[in-house]
Write a structure and sequence with these properties.
Blueprint lengths: L1 H17 L3 E8 L6 E7 L2 E6 L4 E6 L4 E6 L5 E7 L4 E6 L4 E6 L5 E6 L7 E4 L4 E6 L4 E6 L4 E7 L4 E7 L4 E6 L4 E6 L5 E6 L8 E4 L4 E5 L3 E6 L5 E6 L6 E5 L4 E6 L2 E7 L3 E8 L8 E3 L4 E8 L2 E9 L19
Antiparallel strand pairs: 1-28, 2-3, 3-4, 4-5, 6-7, 7-8, 8-9, 10-11, 11-12, 12-13, 14-15, 15-16, 16-17, 18-19, 19-20, 20-21, 22-23, 23-24, 24-25, 26-27, 27-28
Length: 332
């Protein structure tokens, strides 16, 4: 009896220790109606693409208010940032171009015309190229910002979603939602290299973990942990339906996943393991994490109004919570 009591006490203490890895520290009004697609940091400012307003909001995390915006856009979606070059790129989907911003004053420098409508973006410092997902056209592009032109086009023959870069192998990974695959292309010329078929439907969000050589991918009801060399599934963690964005903080080894109304935290160790899940009342899928401060920013909607939810990651919250995370998502 004493042994059973001791076991229960240990489990209860552990749950208390890991039950509140995130807490809300603020909620800020944003202009316009909800409809945000991407959030990314540039020179300490948070850029938020606002497709329904045709703007990109510039939010100052220290002042906790919007200090400016990029106007006259057309359905802006993906954002990629070149910190060293001092530029940010916006997928101006409705106008079939990339908008190039200076991150010193957030003024438009120029636009780069594209052959198709862009959606998700990724900038790779190693290649100094912008990688562009053109979902409707089922294409993947490389854009050379110095030349101001598209340099290579790959036909994916399926609906591409999000990108990840493997600098060790010089590969670009892309999730292909309707065929349950991750496709890998050479980063220089976008030649097909290999593909992984997933045990799960509707893959979207994708992250490459260089430290462990893993790929983390969001599927319909789970997040998968894959060997990046072979594509073998190593673990899976249950996630709410609709989870489509992932973000890895390599310092704390925390993998964040967001869906409309949920934030899931995972420990990216030898096996991906659930830490915590938090229900939130701001609905949206864009988010950005500031590793220096531990703040997580989620733009979205609440009762029809635009909001920016600010959460704080608690110190020490990078170990797995003793709960049945292994029951994870069904293989849809």
């Amino acid at each position: 009896m004493h042994k059973l009591t001791a076991v229960i006490l240990v489990l209860f203490t552990s749950v208390l220790l890991w039950a509140s890895d995130l807490r809300q520290v603020g909620m800020v009004d944003l202009p316009g109606t909800p409809g945000f697609d991407e959030a990314a940091f540039a020179k300490g400012m948070l850029l938020i693409s606002h497709a329904t307003a045709n703007t990109v909001e510039i939010f100052d995390p220290k002042k906790r208010r919007v200090i400016g915006k990029v106007s006259n856009l057309s359905q802006p979606h993906g954002i990629a940032v070149d910190e060293e070059g001092g530029r940010a790129y916006i997928a101006n989907s409705g106008a079939n171009n990339l908008v190039v911003l200076s991150t010193s004053d957030f003024q438009v420098q120029r636009t780069i015309a594209l052959p198709f409508s862009p959606r998700a973006l990724l900038y790779a410092p190693k290649t100094k190229l912008v990688y562009v997902v053109c979902a409707d056209a089922q294409r993947l592009l490389t854009v050379d910002p110095q030349l101001g032109t598209t340099t290579h086009v790959a036909e994916t023959k399926a609906h591409p979603e999000y990108l990840a870069f493997d600098p060790g192998r010089d590969l670009i990974y892309v999730t292909l939602q309707d065929v349950k695959k991750i496709e890998a292309y050479g980063a220089a010329a976008l030649e097909p290299v290999k593909s992984f078929t997933l045990q799960g439907s509707m893959p979207t969000g994708l992250v490459y973990d260089q430290q462990l050589d893993r790929l983390y991918v969001a599927i319909r009801n789970a997040v998968l942990d894959l060997d990046a060399q072979t594509g073998s599934e190593l673990a899976r963690v249950a996630a709410p339906t609709g989870t489509d964005r992932l973000w890895l903080d390599p310092q704390s080894r925390t993998l964040f996943a967001v869906s409309y109304g949920d934030v899931v935290l995972m420990h990216a160790g030898d096996h991906l393991t659930a830490i915590d899940e938090l229900l939130i009342d701001v609905k949206g899928h864009a988010f950005a994490f500031d590793a220096k401060t531990g703040f997580l920013y989620l733009p979205g909607g609440r009762e029809g109004r635009s909001k920016l939810l600010i959460l704080k990651q608690q110190s020490g919250s990078t170990q797995p919570q003793p709960r049945a995370a292994g029951k994870a998502g069904a293989k849809n």
